């Protein structure tokens, strides 16, 4: 029976449709499928192409630039033929049917697994734009999935920060007071004055516009649960890899990676962080394994209904902000003079006023000592203000305590056979956080 199959066997002989394949998580999903589920038939990857470069990617061409990433280094060396399983489809998920014509829609009719991990990831996009991508785009992907003959599983990749930090996040979708599609369409035609007022109200209940759009998209996905077998995976802050594809592999261009690089490297004398607060960090390989295991659970078990997975550290193995910073700072400054390391080790504050004041004073003193007659202080000050804004963007996550229920995650792990637990590891209790942080720091410089 289907439920007796392991994860790799479940994917064998099947085709997948994935969005977000050009992103950090998407590339890692492709790599994991090709290395651990090599009997998969075809992976159809939606690739959004700019109008002026439409000829650069041809349908089905595996040399689109995605596989040039270091993620696929071992595959290119040992099994380059596996890359022929990837078929790139030009499209745009903000368009009806993702911009696919009839020929492409027919091509993907036999897809059985859909993984939707594309989306706008910037925290403070305006509501019309972020809702168009994260809600409207999700609706278009769902309608494409509806046209497929025999979908076994549809996995939507959300975020663990979709609610206010005061809400212990259960593994369920929280109801909205307005329909997701209605909200999306309303925002497109709203006056600027109304948008500003509404955004202010929303940000009293949600960390940012990104979190709000994910919260709405989750509701949209759940509304399709009687039509297609959907489920939701909520990773925390996705940083580097714990093991795969490489120890410490990270997306150095992401905003959170750049932010942590600044924290570890001494850009701030005082950090706007609650050092005793826990932080929901998710290694990218844990997120990938959870996504693939969630699709297996949804498609292979006849009793599997709509499920949400909080893909975050369990209560038995939490990690604190202060630990992350201390380990990162130690790793960056290893080999330097102990006294200098001690003097320049960062302090902490939960007050934005104190944070700005101390860093401004430090900046002014250092500037005067370095070059008392500098005429570029105004330009340097502008750079300092940018650093303040970056830190303030992460305030909802760096200052607040978040609590998560992970019952479904634990059950998912328990339902795997011993071999799958090793290959598709998702047990956060096995993570050595100090080793993870230090390998993440190394990865920031290596990759």
TrEMBL record:
<dbReference type="Pfam" id="PF03015">
    <property type="entry name" value="Sterile"/>
</dbReference>
<dbReference type="InterPro" id="IPR026055">
    <property type="entry name" value="FAR"/>
</dbReference>
<protein>
    <recommendedName>
        <fullName>Fatty acyl-CoA reductase</fullName>
        <ecNumber>1.2.1.84</ecNumber>
    </recommendedName>
</protein>
<keyword id="KW-0560">Oxidoreductase</keyword>
<dbReference type="InterPro" id="IPR033640">
    <property type="entry name" value="FAR_C"/>
</dbReference>
<feature type="domain" description="Thioester reductase (TE)">
    <location>
        <begin position="18"/>
        <end position="291"/>
    </location>
</feature>
<keyword id="KW-0521">NADP</keyword>
<dbReference type="GO" id="GO:0005777">
    <property type="term" value="C:peroxisome"/>
</dbReference>
<dbReference type="Pfam" id="PF07993">
    <property type="entry name" value="NAD_binding_4"/>
</dbReference>
<dbReference type="GO" id="GO:0102965">
    <property type="term" value="F:alcohol-forming long-chain fatty acyl-CoA reductase activity"/>
</dbReference>
<keyword id="KW-0444">Lipid biosynthesis</keyword>
<comment type="function">
    <text>Catalyzes the reduction of fatty acyl-CoA to fatty alcohols.</text>
</comment>
<comment type="similarity">
    <text>Belongs to the fatty acyl-CoA reductase family.</text>
</comment>
<feature type="domain" description="Fatty acyl-CoA reductase C-terminal">
    <location>
        <begin position="384"/>
        <end position="447"/>
    </location>
</feature>
<dbReference type="GO" id="GO:0035336">
    <property type="term" value="P:long-chain fatty-acyl-CoA metabolic process"/>
</dbReference>
<dbReference type="InterPro" id="IPR013120">
    <property type="entry name" value="FAR_NAD-bd"/>
</dbReference>
<keyword id="KW-0443">Lipid metabolism</keyword>
<dbReference type="GO" id="GO:0080019">
    <property type="term" value="F:alcohol-forming very long-chain fatty acyl-CoA reductase activity"/>
</dbReference>
């Amino acid at each position: 029976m289907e439920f007796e199959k392991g994860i790799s066997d479940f994917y064998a002989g099947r085709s997948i449709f994935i969005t977000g394949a050009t992103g950090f998580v998407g590339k890692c999903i492709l790599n994991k499928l090709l290395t651990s589920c090599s009997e998969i038939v075809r992976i159809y990857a939606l690739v959004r192409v700019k109008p002026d470069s439409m000829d650069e990617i041809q349908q089905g061409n595996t040399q689109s630039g995605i596989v040039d990433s270091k993620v696929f280094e071992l595959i290119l060396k040992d099994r380059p033929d596996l890359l022929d399983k990837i078929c790139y489809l030009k499209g745009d998920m903000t368009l009806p049917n993702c911009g696919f014509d009839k020929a492409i829609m027919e091509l993907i009719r036999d897809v059985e697994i859909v993984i939707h991990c594309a989306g706008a990831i910037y925290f403070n996009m305006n509501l019309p734009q972020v809702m168009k991508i994260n809600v409207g785009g999700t609706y278009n992907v769902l309608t494409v999935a509806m046209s497929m003959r025999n979908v076994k599983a549809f996995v939507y990749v959300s975020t663990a920060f979709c609610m206010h930090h005061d809400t212990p996040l259960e593994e369920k979708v929280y109801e909205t007071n307005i329909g997701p599609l209605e909200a999306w369409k309303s925002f497109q035609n709203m006056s600027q004055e109304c948008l500003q007022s509404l955004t202010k109200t929303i940000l009293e209940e949600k960390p940012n516009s990104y979190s709000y759009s994910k919260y709405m998209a989750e509701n949209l996905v759940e509304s399709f649960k009687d039509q297609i077998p959907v489920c939701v995976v909520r990773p925390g802050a996705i940083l580097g890899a714990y093991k795969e594809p490489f120890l410490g592999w990270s997306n150095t261009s992401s905003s959170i990676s750049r932010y942590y690089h600044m924290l570890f490297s001494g850009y701030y004398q005082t950090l706007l962080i609650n050092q005793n607060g826990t932080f929901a960090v998710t290694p990218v390989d844990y997120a990938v394994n959870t996504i693939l295991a969630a699709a297996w659970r949804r498609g292979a078990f006849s009793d599997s209904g709509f499920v949400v997975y909080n893909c975050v550290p369990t209560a038995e193995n939490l990690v604190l902000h202060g630990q992350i910073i201390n380990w990162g700072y130690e790793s960056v400054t290893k080999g330097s003079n102990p006294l200098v390391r001690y003097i320049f080790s960062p302090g902490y504050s939960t007050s934005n006023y104190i944070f700005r004041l101390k860093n401004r004073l430090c900046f002014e003193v250092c500037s005067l000592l370095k070059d008392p007659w500098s005429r570029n202080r105004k330009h340097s000050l502008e750079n300092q203000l940018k650093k303040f804004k970056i830190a303030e963007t992460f305030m909802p996550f760096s200052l607040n305590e978040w609590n998560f229920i992970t019952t479904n995650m634990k059950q998912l792990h328990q339902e795997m056979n011993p071999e799958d637990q090793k290959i598709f590891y998702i047990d956060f209790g096995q993570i050595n956080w100090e080793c993870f942080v230090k390998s993440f720091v190394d990865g920031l410089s290596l990759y």
